[in-house]
Amino acid sequence: MVMRSILTALFIVFTATSHVVADPLYDDMDRFIENNPDGKKYEFVRTYLNALMYFKKNADRQKELPTIDINNLAEAPSVAPIVLALKKDNVNLRIARNLVKKFKTPENGLILKVADLFAKVCDDQMEYNDYDRVLYERIAEIQESGYFEDFYPESFLEAQELLAEQRRASFKELMEASMLINIVLVSPDRNYYGDFYRLGLTRQQRQNLLYKIDDFKGKGFSGGVEEGQTFLQGSVNVIRQILENDSWQVMDD
Fold it and tell me: Which terminus of the chain faces fewer neighbouring Cβ atoms within 10 Å, N or C?
């Protein structure tokens, strides 16, 4: 029942991804204990946060890109920076995916599940970037040739709307992976009453992870999870919440 209460507290906040409750790997106490032993939790979560930083680098780069008036390409700035940014984004996504994939071992079933889910998000986002790049490369060709009558804004915007929908669904899975990090952090050890009561971290490791979270600078990356945040901001803050929650003891308390 205690394990279920942990899950309930998490999923009330994130109803968009509440389907993860159905997985017996972490919805069943015995399976949770078997598949989430202590050991390498600190290293994995530290690496996971490092990987999320590559997502932030991509998000920051996107903010600096020129605004393109699709209905007036003749007067719009070149889309070349957008094409280059999408290529750079995929380099970062590959790095992020490979960082987390190092932990794909059978020793901890929950860590394995998070690593798989995170890798899927990276692969999906790279696929969407490749498709997006093709769209903008076509615009670049038209800008270079000057044959603006060959461009159909409606088709481009329709493709962009579909991409945005697919990206949103993928980022929900990123949020889900970060929610599962909270469960990974819980030690399978129980107290006298049979309750899970501590994190599989030392006091210093807990503080180190909070320092790393503080590296995520900017609006939306502080405090708890709030309405209006991006999925990336929520993914960072949901991990912050359990680390800052003093009701969870640590291994050397």
Answer: N
Residue 25 identity (one-letter amino acid): L
Check if the beta carbon of residue 129 is closer than 8 Å to that of residue 91: no
Show the 3-state SS of 79-147.
CHHHHHHHHHHHHHHHHHHHHHHCCCCCCCHHHHHHHHHHHHHHHHHHHHHHHHHHHHHHHHHHHHHCC
Task: For residue 42, give both structure tokens.
Answer: 């600190």
Nearest CA among 161, 138, 135, 157 for reference residue 71: 157
Of 179, 172, 171, give the one whose Cα is nearest residue 237: 179
Is the pTM higher than 0.85? The answer reads: yes
Whole-number percent of the chain with pLDDT over 90: 64
Buried b (16+ CB within 10 A) or exposed e, 172-187: bbbbbbbbbbbbbbbb
**CA separation for the pair 81, 153 (Å, rounded):** 20
Token representation of residue 117 = 């889910």
Which percentage of the chain shows pLDDT scores above 70?
Answer: 89
Cβ atoms of 46 and 115 closer than 8 Å:
no
Separation CA 200–CA 179 (nearest Å): 16
Residue 2 or 89, more confident? 89
Q: What is the mean pLDDT of residues 123-134?
A: 97
Would you mind telling me the total number of residues written for the chain in this entry?
253
